[in-house]
């Protein structure tokens, strides 16, 4: 009996010895890592450290943050390391991996948006949605097109009363989606949107895919008509008021608001017979620094693949066009025929009295700093971003 107890005691002691040995080895490893600063982190954790370092950097250099004139800035990893805000990235990776990076900072309506861009060669690279989509450009069938290769030219644009060079508007260039069935769905805050355009700054133009609020473009008294037909000036319209209310009700930490960027939206008028689709008609008058709007007519015309989409009210423009569905909704574009009609989708583009009721399909302008997470862009598998 005593002999058996001794055998058990020896086994227990041996097991305890092994456990203590493992603990000692772990402690030694932790000490070595802490002394050398070497500890492998996931790439997402490295990106988190880069963002935290950039926030510390700009807290001490707030004069370098984006502003109304300079809407985005960046700081390199090398500057963060040399300033003592971040360890060298080699401290967080294996010896065989070499990384570089920077942190992009943009001004939103109420805050700053920090996004890490990490490049570790073949091992890992931060993927931005705009870069991913631009690789899919097509020249036939449904898909993403280079805008300048498909638009119909209009008039030359000059300088407006404020001195703004209208021709430099980012919404006049970039890439546009055309066709009927497209992989251009993106999910934001559990809501579906469709990408209409990637503009000249690689920012996104997206439209609400499930709009519910409806009303008149405007319903004020119009002296030309001597009726409450409304006034077709978007800047003071009921449509603008409704969109502003919806946007203001969003939480500041919603992804849509955090990623929204201001654009000079195109609110100029056009006629039924106008053929231009380059935006020169609508963008002859702009409303500056806007985060939301309705769609201008030229974007809807450009989305059609029909060669017979000849002018503003051509029914052919509704063919092969993802922006013309079984819903009627207001565009942002007034008719130049009078002061109380604007264009809306009602099976096709039509000029309608402003006091008619239609959906307000909100359009939002989102930063090129949208990072791709997952998805194929279909309605059932939309792009997920952060």
Offer a concise description of the structure.
Helices cover 22% and strands 24% of the residues. With 386 residues, it is an alpha+beta fold. It is elongated.
Would you give an account of this structure?
- Helix content is about 20%, strand content about 25%.
- It is an alpha+beta fold and about 375 residues long.
- The chain has helices spanning about 1-35, 45-60, 75-80, 130-135, 240-250, 255-260, 295-300; strands spanning about 70-75, 100-105, 110-120, 145, 175-180, 185-190, 190-200, 205-210, 215, 265, 285-290, 290-295, 330-335, 340-345, 350-355, 355-360, 365, 370-375, 385.
- The protein contains seven helices and 19 strands.
- It is elongated, with a radius of gyration of 28 Å.
- The termini are far apart.
- The chain folds into two domains: about 45-125, no CATH class; about 130-385, no CATH class.
